[in-house]
Design brief:
By secondary structure, this protein is α+β, with helices and mostly antiparallel strands. About 50% of the residues lie in helices and about 10% in strands. The chain is built from 8 helices and 5 strands, in the order ααααααααβββββ. A hairpin with an 8-residue loop joins β2 (about 195-200) and β3. α6 crosses α8 (about 160-170).
């Protein structure tokens, strides 16, 4: 066990298995009004506000400044930079929701209005849960390094199955008519084991779904088609959530 932990630490530092360094997602809440709106409408509202901010400055200048603080801003640009930063948070948050909703809708054979609304709610709950989990787990480096921290007693949560359990605790409070929730596992019972949430259209095979795996990016939302992912996913026994 000692040597396995050292190997995990070494691989984590080199970043072999985690392509993106983890970062802490900012706090963001969904209002009751936004829950009652299509995610695309909410995103469009924030993007419209951003357009107003960017309308008074040179296109791309604030983006360049955020990447390189040595780039000087004009007085007008300095006056709007804080608002620009504030709007980046909800825009990124709702972009995740809209993109996940789109992926969920693509799973459906019949894209009825009720099914689309269910995809909307499911996407909102998942992304909102991941943002809250990020604040709770406080992962600030790679996923494997967090595993090492847990194994050495420096952290309590952040294993792959913690993400699945905490997200499912929220999703299973609802009844899903058009989607099924599955517990996916890869490399079971090995030190490379990974667990993730898999979502399929109702009564569709496991490998037709998408896998949502925030663990490997340290909390950043990530999803792919089960068949397209580098992990070979299998459904964990008796782990179907209707």
């Amino acid at each position: 066990m000692k040597y396995a932990s050292l190997i995990l630490l070494f691989l984590s530092i080199l970043g072999f298995t985690c392509r993106a360094e983890a970062y802490l997602l900012p706090k963001h809440e969904i209002s009751k009004t936004q829950m009652a709106m299509h995610a695309e409408q909410v995103l469009a509202s924030f993007q419209s506000q951003m357009d107003e901010v960017m309308g008074s400055v040179r296109p791309g200048k604030l983006d360049e400044h955020e990447r390189n603080k040595k780039i000087r801003l004009s007085r007008k640009e300095r006056a709007v930079i804080e608002r620009y930063r504030e709007l980046q948070i909800p825009i990124r948050f709702w972009k995740y929701i809209v993109d996940l909703k789109t992926s969920l809708i693509e799973l459906l054979d019949v894209k009825s209005e009720k099914a689309i609304w269910e995809a909307d709610l499911l996407a909102k709950l998942i992304i909102d849960a991941v943002y809250k989990i990020s604040q709770e787990y406080r992962v600030d480096f790679t996923a494997l390094f967090r595993n090492f921290e847990i194994n050495t007693g420096d952290s309590k949560k952040g294993f792959c199955y913690h993400y699945v359990t905490d997200i499912l605790d929220i999703l299973t409070q609802h009844t899903w008519k058009y989607f099924s929730l599955h517990w996916g596992e890869a490399n079971a019972k090995t030190w490379l084991e990974n667990n993730a949430l898999v979502i399929t259209a109702k009564r569709k095979p496991f490998d037709s779904g998408i896998v949502f795996d925030a663990w490997r990016t340290g909390g950043k939302p990530l999803w792919k088609g089960v068949k397209e992912d580098s992990f070979q996913w299998k459904e964990a026994p008796t782990m179907l959530y209707e």
